[in-house]
Amino acid sequence: MSDASFVRTEMLSEQDPPPTSVGVIGWLRANLFSNWWNAILTVLCLAAIWYVLSGLLGWTLRSVWNAGSLNECRDVMIANWGSTHGHACWGVINDRWLQLLFGFYPPELYYRPILAMLLLFAALAPVLFADKVPPKLLYVTAAYPFLMPWLMWGGSIWTPIGVAAGFVVAYLVGRKLGGTASGLVLGILSAVVWWMLWFGLPGQAETFDSGVGRVLVAGLGENLASISPDTAPFWLETVESRKFGGFMLSVLIGVVAIGCSLPLGILLALGRQSNMLIVKAICVGFIEFIRGVPLITLLFVASTLLNIFLPPGTNFDIILRVMIMVTLFAAAYMAEVIRGGLAGLPTGQYEGADSLGLNYWQAQRLIIMPQALKISIPGIVSTFIGIFKDTTLVSIIALLDPLGLSNSIRADTDWNGIYWELFAFIALMFFIACFGMSRYSMYLERKLKTEND
Amino acid sequence: MAESMHDTMVEREIDRRKMQVSEEVAIQITGMNKWFGMFHVLRDIDLTVHKGERIVICGPSGSGKSTLIRCINRLEEHQTGQIVVEGTELTSDLKNIDKIRSEVGMCFQHFNLFPHLTILENCTLAPIWVRKIPKREAEETAMHFLEKVKIPEQAEKYPGQLSGGQQQRVAIARSLCMRPRIMLFDEPTSALDPEMIKEVLDTMIELAEEGMTMLCVTHEMGFARQVANRVIFMDDGQIVEQNEPEEFFKNPKSDRTKLFLSQILGH
User: Fold this and answer.
1) E strands, B98-252, where?
2) d(CA A102, CA A222)
3) Which of B176, B255, B192, B189 is closest to B222 using CA atoms?
4) How many CB pairs below 8 A link A and B?
5) How far apart are CA B40 and CA B236, in angstroms?
6) What CATH number does the domain located at A72-105+242-453 have?
7) Site from A276, A351, A356, A451 to mutate, B interface, most B CB atoms within 10 angstroms
8) Does A356 touch chain B (CB under 8 A)?
9) d(Cα A7, Cα A11) in Å, to the nearest integer?
10) Deepest of A97, A284, B16, B178, by most Cβ within 10 A of its Cβ?
11) Cβ contacts of B94-101, under 8 Å, gap ≥ 24
12) d(CA A180, CA A183)
């Protein structure tokens, strides 16, 4: 009988793996203490984490919540712990959190930004979670761009209705002339022009007796100006732009910039790939110029220089100007991110769409963009997050975003000298928003992942 | 020589009842030239395709055969000469181009299915958006053609979940859903594993049996011999020789054709 031959006479039963390779112990061994060197590193890392956390948690938790000023805080600290070092004074947040959220928005009207925020969630839901919410919510989404400014700035309900009607009329005219795409473009253009007129019109405190509206359609301007709380139904008390501030302002600018920069970025990316020489040149020029200039410069242009270029007497709303600048800035980056996605598509996809007789816009909408945007999701969301955080730069042109407010809070003698607590609170709020966006992008990527591709 | 010709040949008898060439002209190409930059890819192409013809175009790589059929539905633009498809001349007029593209189906070497859509959606997309057919009706048509290419059970899957041969059959079904009058095939089996080539060729033969006008760039000489009524040999951007398959394979006239045939058949 040779060694090569073997016959099993008895089958082995299943046994448990050794306890050192499964469960908590197995995991620890495999991941933290696989050999001496790793064990030492693990211990060192744990010590470092403990060192940082013990300081941070001590500062955060052994802190003063009820105090009306920094001096009061310090008195409490000395009474409790004998020293002011290593203790946070959350009294400032306790005292000023409403201001950090709403700026100088009139407190009796807080319900309006809150309502706008809740409506924002309702408007976003059908876009973000298309398969989980009733499609009827899309009506809220469609109405939101018209409702939100009315809620925030107040005035007559006829203004947003007028803008919406202008949009619909321009859309229908455009569709008659040259298909759905041109209808949409015309409609959006008309809505934008309408809003700019409205913001330029008298009645908005800052723009009194001036405004693009006056210059362009003087007669219409007079008529709208004559509408007063007594004559107009559904009149909301107007709130001036300079009273806007805090996270409300950041979210407002951020949402508008994010919402407008994606479609604009798509158009720019397509324009950059266009065969039409002039369209291409304009898009490339725009993208390269905007990307080559710091956002702060653009914001300064928005706040000061723009007045030099516009007709004398024009002075349209500072927040609107900032929104436009941040949107353009975001759109240039968006265009490049989307161009990356477009470059990732094989030419066969274009040929497949062409060979079936789909026209350019149908091919873009049904075949190219769904795939290109899917590839670009991480880049798009990174740009969104970056833009949302960049809204804090408006503090430089004297808008009171949370960072700007932290300066004005410090200017108060009660809170002169307080830094970390304010920054920590602001950081936390931004973190929540940005982390939310980041998690959403991961969820979306998982959802859109079809097999083998 | 005979060995390799038989390996992809069709075992079953081909039903030739409907495979009749009519007098009606489907495609008329006259004096057509095309350049890629300075490179003269297609030189003075004259070609008349009658309704019901099954033409196989072969030739060495770089001979312009793919470019020729891509010109027929304007995936490539020709510079001089005239191409008339089903009575419509191909000019830069977008209306004409879209009209011709919806009449002419095309299958590609790499299938070019849309990976983000299911098989059924791939098939209904163009009928719904280009032909403006109601969704239900488009889905019924799609299922009809998916049954025809023998993969109705895959309708809800995504292209990435299918084998190459299945994907190519879906691509054929997708084209057929537009009810084209002419089908163009650009090396439909070149990217497939050998055992999948047959299933695609079978589908194409069935199509030929129903009288479809077909132009096919392929190296499947078994298919050419059995199904085609005309074989065209191209080299250096020009049509070098064309003939009925029997004559073409038995008595090639030009030296270039003889060399080509000996290279692809004689190993």
Assistant:
1) 104-107, 182-186, 213-217, 230-235, 238-243
2) 32
3) B189
4) 76
5) 9
6) 1.10.3720.10
7) A356
8) yes
9) 11
10) B178
11) B94/A359, B98/A357, B98/A359, B98/B130, B99/A357, B100/B73, B100/B74, B101/A354, B101/A355, B101/A356, B101/A357, B101/B73, B101/B74
12) 5
Q: Do A348 and B116 touch (CB under 8 A)?
A: no
Cβ distance of B130 and A356 shorter than 8 Å:
yes
pLDDT single digits (tens) B199-258: 899 999 999 988 899 999 998 888 898 889 999 999 999 999 999 999 999 989 999 999
CB atoms within 10 A of CB B251: 10
How close does chain A come to B93, measured CA to CA in Å?
12
- Domain residue ranges of chain A, discontinuous segments joined by +: 16-61, 72-105+242-453, 156-235
d(CA B249, CA B214): 20
* Among candidates B94, B102, B114 on the partner chain, residue whose Cβ is nearest the Cβ of A352: B114
Q: How many residues does chain B have?
A: 267
Tell me the two tokens of residue A250.
């950041």
Window B:72-91, CB contacts with A under 8 Å: 73-75
Cβ-based contacts of A346 with chain B (< 8 Å): 110, 112
Claim: this prediction has a pTM higher than 0.90: no
Q: In chain B, whose CA is at the least distance from the CA of A452? A: B160
Q: Does the beta carbon of B116 lie under 8 angstroms from any beta carbon of chain A?
A: yes
Chain B nearest CA to A450, separation (Å)? 7
**Element at B82 (helix H, strand E):** strand B80-85
Q: What is the ipTM of this complex?
A: 0.89
What does pLDDT average to in each consecutive run of 10 residues of chain A (453 residues)? Answer: 79 83 81 88 95 90 87 89 86 89 91 92 88 85 88 82 81 75 74 67 39 40 49 73 90 93 94 92 95 91 76 72 91 95 93 92 92 92 94 88 89 87 93 94 86 49
